[in-house]
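Protocol step 4 of 5: obtain the predicted structure for the target chain.
Materials: sequence only (see below). No template structures provided, no constraints applied. The aim of this step is simply to have a reference model before the mutagenesis design in step 5. Sequence pasted as it appears in the construct record:
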Amino acid sequence: MKILFAILVVVALVLVGLAVLAFLDRRADRAEWERLTALQPKDPPLFTAQMVADLPEPARRYFTYAISPGTPLLPVADIGMTGQFSLGTKDDPRYQPMEARQLLAAPEGFVWAMNTTGGMPVAGSDSGRWTRFRIFGLVPVARAGGDVDHARSAFGRFVSEAVIWSPAAVLPGPGVTWEAVDDDTARVTLRRGQLAQAVDMTLDAEGRPRVVSFERWTNANPEKTFRLQPFGAVVSDFREVAGYRLPFHAEAGNMFGTDDYFPFFIADVTQIRFPEAQP
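Step 4 output (structure tokens):
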């Protein structure tokens, strides 16, 4: 009986510890969400074509399609989505239905809070500072961050997603430069501190991004070694939101453009909003 009691005490302590850890993670999510939301400008300038008149033609085409004249330039976006998230490989993707909400505030950071809704439940968050996911809301299955590799990898992610969902964040200015790759491809490079990321965007004739691709610093490979690898997304279903034209469908994955590519992330956006700055 004493042994059984001791085992029960240990199990209880472990469960309490995991519950406390999950509570602290959710509190960190809320704090980061609030910090990034506060970066929304209180009195944003309004978009004019003159702001992008000196850019290479593909970049100018993108902005004049994506942002209507007179639109307030709000770089912080709140995005809701559903879709499928792969927990496996190309040969056995094991897609799970998922729901997620993301706050995107390039070049400062992001928070992506996700939970799967089928099979064994996985929930947690990804950000510029951490990756934390748990099964059954308690048991950690992924926990990383706080180092230069994670920061570099995360920076690539939210810069590329800003091109997709937050065009105001990638307008030319300090730390943001544009160049033409060819007649239908523009390349933006964002810099923040020691971090820099170039992202290519292939456009149609009207200026819709069709493909967003870049070399991402990642350890998503059999060796689990951080290195540059091609990553990309195909986007579609453009809709108007508060003066912006944005895609509501995206499929993305590692090794983009190679035989090893498969989209581990397939998302349908349910809403995009641009939160107001708090007084």
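Step 4 remarks: The longest strand covers residues 227-241. The chain has one domain: 2-273.
Proceed to step 5.
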